[in-house]
Amino acid sequence: MQSVLRAAAPPIAASGGPIITNAQANQLENDIKDSAANLGARLNRDADALAGLAVFGARSAKSEAKKWERAWRSLEGLVSRSDAKSERMESQYALIAMRSGLYPDKDQGGLVELRVGDVWKYGTSANPEDRYSPIVLRALGLAMMVETIGTRPQVLTQERVQIIEYVQTHGRRPPGNPIYK
Fold first, then answer.
1. Cβ contacts of residue 142 below 8 Å, gap of 6+?
2. pLDDT digit string (tens) for 13-22?
3. Does 147 fall in a domain?
4. Number of structural domains, the chain?
5. pTM for this structure?
6. Which domain holds residue 45?
């Protein structure tokens, strides 16, 4: 009778813990192998994803480099034309946040947080007084500050310089400038 009771109870190791059976050991080994295989598959998937991101990142970096190259070439063209005589004067302006809060992000989409005094957009206009309605500017929480007056090539050059400097400082275009123009 005692032998039947011993067979039903799990054997006790010298350390005081239960000893597992061969079937349990085999099941544990299979579980570990399955877990390792699943982990390996996940790692391979993650490695493939990272490789894809690296390729995308390289393409993205190449694309950004091309954008910068185009921006600089365009800037050089504007500078070369800025000496041309033109009687029509224009203005280069900045739209500045007048309150802290969320503003539309025309560059990357969605909303962006700006503080009082942050630039939302750089632009040019032949008639800055008529470019934006005061009501619209007030509703958006923006104020226009004319920064440069000159010929069209001169103000376009200044606008491009401002945008490039903003990108160098902030890592992106101003929220109101979706293109380099």
1. 95, 96, 97, 98, 120, 132
2. 455 555 667 7
3. yes
4. 2
5. 0.56
6. 1-59
